[in-house]
Design a protein that fits this description.
The structure holds three protein chains of three kinds. Chain A is built from eleven helices and eight strands. Chain A is α/β, with parallel strands linked by helices. Chain A has one domain: Rossmann fold, CATH 3.40.50.970. Chain A is globular. The N terminus of chain A is likely disordered. Chain B folds into three domains: 111 residues, OB fold (Dihydrolipoamide Acetyltransferase, E2P) (Beta Barrel), CATH 2.40.50.100; 114 residues, no CATH class; 201 residues, Chloramphenicol Acetyltransferase (2-Layer Sandwich). Helices cover 25% and strands 23% of the residues of chain B. Chain B has nine helices and 18 strands. In chain B, strands 9-18-17-16-12-15 form a six-stranded mixed sheet. The longest helix of chain B is centred in the last third of the chain and has 16 residues. Chain B starts with a strand and ends with a helix. Chain C is of the alpha/beta class. The mean pLDDT of chain C is 95. The chains are: A alpha/beta, B alpha+beta, C alpha/beta. Chains A and C meet through helix 5 and helix 6 of A and helix 4, helix 5, helix 6, helix 10 and helix 11 of C.
Chain lengths: 358, 435, 339
């Protein structure tokens, strides 16, 4: 049975105006890249180049760009499994991200993680995580380490931990927020609320559907922002990160957006009403931001088309790279199981004897 | 009259140290009063009184380790006061001997089994072959057909013990040189011993339906002990005994015993003589006990007996206390039991020295393998006439070669030689045997 | 001899743990402790006595009752190069944190192709026998021993507690450090100088020729008792203390059984799918040709452990059970008192 169309809740913050044209153009390029990458991922999944689960950021581009514009290079990012766009905007090349989806050794996680587990130590993308809520305690612990390693201030690092709306009902969320509130940790929890946990609406899953209010139990400021407004998202996230790094005040930020398609590439989302789908399509942040920039004179139609075309080319190059990259070497199967080698570490493949008969 | 007991004050506590008494004998006690301080594995706790009354007696001294539930004091109406300093009624060991591992909440009581009795089973009648992998492997390596072996394990399973026995039998049969502890195939006709190899694969092994009460486990232990004994540093001493008078003495004795229907064998004389010599040389009547030498109060002489089921060593207990006639009777009875497989474990236990005699097989001399943990074993060969010059005349003298195998960890050469010299003298002057 | 006297002391398992934690806190400022009641209360089982006082609340962190939260937080700190040592009050409560341990700590290094390592130690006691009833008496170590990416060690003596804890803290992988309630007060000789055990190695703690008992943690102390008692009956028993459940030292187990031809596994956990099942399979594969009898397991009855002392006793494997099974495997009749 199709769920009712949702009404968009009010944002608790306003976006700021007066942005330089270059910045806006840059944001559009990023949104366009994420859009192109995700559409191509969907296609590559259909072509069986990508296996397993694959969750896309389609419809969430403004949120992705806004959050990644706010986070600093020194900050640590933990995300759930809908992580492609964040990896791209954290600075990882589309080639290495696509190669990871293809399960190639050149992928960001060496082909061992796949779509849900993008990781890059250098850019402090500390992991996409496939278990709902699993990333929240480690992100909290990273903030604990930062608190003990650094002095609070504008130059201090902080942690941004992304999670979905459905995740706010799991125990790890509450345990972690309690620890962060108790220990005053430099962390911002960002709820990317696309309205649906798989097929279940927020209203059907959460007794307090105003998710940003859930920080109140932990004396943590809660902020809600329109996820289709890239500038509003960026500013709200910056403000939250500032509180975290300077005042060791953890913040709960809720970003309201729409998921353009199903939960994952294999989900036709038949549970959504046509009305809801229509709203999602109407509020699609990519064409609307494009139109906004054109009407503001930041971009011409031709410029925008060129940007979209360039993004598409960029992603095509990534696909070629991923396709041509080698598979991981089977001889390296056990390579990363342990960091410290000890006696008798198992190395038997299926069907091999566990030991030589004496 | 309520006893105050050591309370359980933590979930991992097994015992507590009564570190300090807070009340004295004669003090009036009210419920809830702190009687003492208890040091548990986690903390120092108060021992509170559960009863009103007079503290009549302290049962443990301060500093004692007391198990949970054990009484530490007695509260009464004051009529049974036991002064401090008086010996506590139930003294508890002071902390000098704390338990090493508190884990043993209830120390498992494993009764010292007098003598483990082997479970015995006859081989399965269905023809199905039950065998342990190890038995199969050893059998394969030695060319033993397991179908010819009776299993003594559970459900008639053939185990290492069974195969080891078959191998010993095979080797013994194939070898013309018999040594005491390899004589697994004695038969009434010694000439048959070096029989053809094929037939020798199974000679000493009884068939499934005639196995009565094999003592396989003990024999397995024995076999392994003998193998282990090869690792024991040992040496041999040989002496040639002039048995001229011993033979004559035996004839005299048998004449006087004839009325009783008993006869004394040369072997009985060796048993008796050895026992007497051992009594005089307690350092030989000993065994190696893992870092200590155990000198035994009793002189128990084992006598190797060949049986159809292998070699057994029944023991003549307190042989130094028994008369020659008694030894003769007992040895004969034990040998009979051995041949019918009816020896009890007790009859094979407790030996302090062993005698192995292959004289009846015409063996001139040989060396015997130590029978651990005994420090010595005496190998006795056949009597033979040797030429000797006596009063300028060449005569023949009957002699027996005896060879002592010695555990060098227990005995040195000189000590063992002294024993062997005295034993030789005893045998050559046999009257002293019965003195 | 004089020098020997000076280099060891007899201390309890608890003291050995406490002293090792102290030494590692002093040696490396990346090491910190976190757990419920480890600071002010000084540990539910008093392992952390005096440490908060000496190292302060940033190094000895009292966590609220939130195992998933604080175990995961320790894991996150480890990702940033800290070396947390977590205390979970008992292994039973680790189930609340099992997503963080199994789905995260054990996976990250592999899943992220070695870009991150997790130098995390999780200390926790298992064991029954204290009338703590069904939910507080479990031996769940096999759950963790099953998981690639984890290391699981289980010392049975104070000396091993010291050497294995030191090794665990210095290891760059997540290590489950299994303790046992009934070992905390056990005493033993412990070297005074620094000891770092080799994780993944079992030890032959008593040699023998007739039968091998394989055990670990508390079970090893029982196995040694039984072996010594049977020694008096003329049986020569070898005891293998596993020390490390993952990796498992199959070679040491098999070398021993090759010598003795007989094996009994003594384990505190439940029989089916337990540690003993793995040991038995290993022996079958490694030394089949040397077995003179089937491998037997002496394990706990498969029942949620009852509170009542009589039932608890009946359910847990005892020294008498072990002695009986050893005799059965060696095909020797039990004496009547064995029951």
């Amino acid at each position: 049975m199709a769920a009712k169309a949702r009404t968009r809740p009010e944002s608790t913050v306003e976006s700021t105006g007066g942005e330089p044209a270059d910045t806006l153009r840059d944001y559009y390029e990023q949104m366009s890249l994420v859009r192109a990458f995700e559409l191509r991922s969907s296609e590559m999944y259909a072509r069986a180049k990508i296996g397993g689960y694959c969750h896309l950021n389609l419809g969430e581009e403004a949120t992705v760009v806004g959050l990644m514009a706010a986070i600093e290079a020194r900050d640590y990012l933990f995300t759930g499994y809908r992580d492609h766009g964040y990896a791209l905007l954290r600075g990882l090349s589309p080639e290495r991200v696509m190669a990871e989806l293809f399960g190639k050794v050149t992928g960001v996680s060496g082909g061992r993680g796949g779509s849900m587990h993008l990781f890059d130590a250098e850019t402090r993308l500390f992991g996409g995580y496939g278990i709902v809520g699993g990333q929240i305690p480690p992100a909290t612990g990273a903030a604990l380490a930062l608190k003990n390693q650094e002095v609070a201030g504008p130059d201090a690092a902080a942690v941004m931990c992304l999670l979905g709306d459905g995740t706010t009902n799991i125990g790890a969320f509450h345990e972690s927020l309690n620890l962060a509130g108790l220990w005053k940790l430099p962390i911002v929890y960002v709820i990317v609320n696309n309205g649906l946990g798989m097929g279940t609406t927020v209203e059907k899953a959460s007794a307090e559907p105003d998710l940003y209010k859930r920080g109140a139990s932990y004396r943590m400021p809660g902020v809600r922002v329109d996820g289709d407004d890239v500038l509003a998202v960026r500013d709200a996230a910056r403000d939250a990160l500032q509180q975290a790094r300077e005042s060791r005040q953890p913040v709960l930020l809720e970003v309201m957006c729409y998921r353009l398609r199903g939960h994952s590439v294999v989900d036709p989302a038949r549970y959504r009403s046509s009305e809801d789908t229509t709203i999602a399509q109407q509020s699609d942040p990519v064409p609307s931001f494009r139109a906004k920039l054109i009407s503001a004179g930041v971009l011409s139609e031709t410029d925008a088309a060129a940007i979209d075309e360039a993004a598409d080319v960029r992603v095509s190059e990534a696909v070629v790279f991923a396709d041509e990259s080698p598979e991981p070497d089977v001889d390296d199967l056990f390579k990363y199981v342990y960091a410290t080698a000890v006696a008798n570490m198992p190395t038997a493949l299926a069907g091999e004897p566990v030991m030589d008969a004496l | 009259m309520p006893d105050v007991i050591m309370p359980r004050l933590s979930d991992t506590m097994e015992e507590g140290e009564l570190s300090r008494w807070m009340k004295q004998v004669g003090d009036e006690i009210h419920k809830g009063d702190v009687l003492a301080e208890i040091e548990t594995d986690k903390a120092t706790m108060d021992l509170e009184a559960f009863d009103n009354g007079i503290l009549e007696q302290l049962l443990v001294v301060a500093g004692a380790l007391v198990p949970i539930g054990a009484p530490v004091a007695r509260i009464g109406d004051g009529s049974n006061i036991v002064a401090e300093g008086a010996a506590p009624a139930a003294p508890v060991a002071a902390p000098a001997a704390p338990v090493a591992v508190a884990a043993a909440a209830t120390p498992p009581v494993i009764p010292p089994a007098d003598a483990p009795t082997p479970d015995t089973h006859t081989a399965t009648q269905t023809g199905e072959l039950r065998t342990s992998p190890l038995a199969r492997k050893i059998g394969r390596e030695h060319g033993i057909d397991l179908h010819t072996i009776a299993g003594t394990g559970p459900q008639g399973r053939i185990t290492r013990t069974d195969v080891d026995r078959a191998i010993l039998a095979q080797e013994a049969a194939a070898s013309a040189v018999l040594t005491a502890h390899q004589a697994a195939t004695p038969t009434a006709t010694p000439a048959a011993a070096p029989a053809a190899a094929p037939a020798a694969a199974t000679p000493a092994v009884v068939s499934a339906d005639s196995v009565s009460v094999p003592v396989s486990r003990i024999r397995a232990v024995t076999a392994r002990r003998l193998t282990e004994s090869q690792a024991v540093p040992h040496f041999f001493l040989t002496s040639v005994v002039n048995v001229e008078r011993l033979v004559a003495f035996r004839a005299d004795v048998n004449e006087s015993l004839a009325a009783l229907g008993t006869k004394v064998s040369l072997n009985d004389l060796f048993v008796r003589a050895s026992a007497v010599a051992l009594r005089a040389h307690p350092e030989v009547n000993a065994s190696w006990g893992d870092g200590v030498i155990l000198r035994h109060n009793h002189v128990n002489v084992g006598v190797a007996v060949a049986t159809d089921d292998g070699l057994l060593v029944p023991v003549v207990a307190d042989a130094d206390q028994k008369s020659l006639g008694a030894i003769a009777i007992e040895t004969r009875a034990l040998a009979g039991l051995a041949r019918t497989g009816s020896l009890s474990l007790a009859q094979m236990s407790g030996g302090t020295f062993t005698i192995s005699n292959l004289g009846m097989f015409g063996i001139d001399s040989f060396t015997a393998v130590l029978n651990p943990p005994e420090a010595g074993i005496l190998a006795i060969g056949a009597a033979s006439d040797v030429p000797a010059v006596r009063d300028g005349v060449l005569v023949t003298v009957p002699t027996v070669k005896i060879t002592l195998t010695v555990d060098h960890r227990v005995l040195d050469g000189a000590v063992a030689a002294a024993f062997l010299r005295d034993l030789t003298t005893l045998l050559e002057e046999p009257l002293r045997i019965v003195l | 001899m004089n020098t020997e006297v000076a280099t060891t002391r007899t201390i309890t398992y608890r003291q050995a743990l406490n002293e090792t934690l102290r030494a590692e806190l002093e040696r490396d400022d990346k090491v910190f402790l976190i757990g419920e009641e480890i600071g002010i209360f000084e540990g539910s089982y008093k392992i952390t006595v005096g440490l908060l006082e000496d190292f302060g609340p940033d190094r000895v962190i009292d966590a609220p009752i939130a195992e998933e939260g604080f175990v995961g937080a320790a894991l996150g700190a480890a990702m940033l190069g800290m070396r947390p040592v977590v205390e979970i009050m008992t292994i039973n409560f680790s189930l609340i944190a099992i997503d963080q341990i199994v789905n995260h700590a054990a996976k990250m290094r592999s899943m992220f192709a070695g870009q991150v390592s997790i130098p995390l130690v999780i200390r926790m006691p298992g064991g029954g026998g204290q009338q703590l009833a069904a939910t507080h008496s479990q031996n769940l170590e096999v759950w963790y021993a099953h998981i690639p990416g984890l290391k699981v060690v289980a010392p049975s003596t104070p000396a091993d507690a010291k050497a294995l804890l030191t090794a665990a803290i210095r290891d760059d992988d997540p290590v489950i450090f299994l303790e046992n309630l009934s070992l905390y007060s056990a005493k033993g000789e412990v070297p005074n100088d620094e000891q770092v055990a080799e994780i993944g190695k079992a030890a032959v703690v008593k040699t023998g020729t007739d039968l091998t008992i394989v055990s670990y943690s508390r079970g090893t102390t029982t196995a040694l008792e039984v072996a010594r008692q049977l020694e008096a009956e003329g049986l020569s028993i070898e005891v293998v203390d596993l020390r490390s459940l993952r990796p498992l030292d199959r070679d040491t187990i098999c070398a021993s059984v090759k010598k003795t031809g007989h094996a009994v596994v003594f384990e505190d956990d439940w029989l089916s799918y337990g540690i003993g099942a793995e040991i038995s399979a290993t022996i079958g594969e490694g030394v089949f040709d040397f077995l003179d009898a089937p491998v037997r397991r002496v394990a706990a009855a498969e029942v949620p452990l009852p509170y009542a002392k009589s039932l608890e006793k009946a359910a847990l494997p005892s020294a008498a059970d072990l002695a009986r099974v050893v005799r059965e495997v060696l095909n020797i009749s039990s004496t009547p008192n064995d029951k």
